[in-house]
Design goal:
63% helix, alpha+beta, 158 residues, 11% strand
């Protein structure tokens, strides 16, 4: 029972990390600019101003946006499937479907963060990756651990 609670808590924490990484505006930051997947915040005249993402390869940006949203959707779906399988899965069976959904979420966030690393901000010399970018990679590790756990985990036969 304790292991089950730990898995659920880790899964919920991973979903929260994925949502924060996708929503928060700190994928690329410096003193006057904070960029996320959806827009750019520039600090001018003692205030933050929102602008659209200009000068970004649109196909790469849309791929990052889509895969990060898909990662959130698959992780949330995997949690609901896991809870459903707790009640419907025959004893002794593995949580394969949940593991596959979690593995898809893992691949989606890996693709999003990899494309962002390889294709966006490659020519910028000022600034660095922000905490949302780091959270995306941390959630990748957590989703991978959860996917392996679900693929190995069997429902107790008691």
């Amino acid at each position: 029972m304790l292991m089950l609670a730990g898995i659920v808590v880790l899964h919920i924490a991973t979903i929260i990390l994925l949502l924060v990484a996708a929503i928060d505006n700190a994928w690329w930051i410096n003193d006057t600019v904070s960029t996320d997947l959806w827009g750019r915040w520039e600090f001018t005249n003692s205030a933050w101003h929102y602008t659209n993402l200009k000068n970004y390869p649109e196909e790469y940006l849309q791929a990052v946006q889509a895969t990060s949203v898909l990662a959130c959707i698959f992780a949330i779906l995997a949690l609901f499937v896991f809870v459903a399988q707790l009640f419907t899965l025959p004893k002794g069976q593995r949580f394969t479907f949940t593991g596959i959904l979690q593995l898809i979420a893992c691949l989606c966030i890996m693709i999003a963060a990899s494309i962002y690393t390889a294709e966006l901000h490659t020519n910028e010399t000022e600034g660095g990756y922000g905490h949302s970018y780091v959270l995306a990679w941390i959630s990748f590790v957590f989703t991978f651990i959860l996917a392996i756990t679900y693929l190995i985990l069997q429902k107790k036969s008691e």
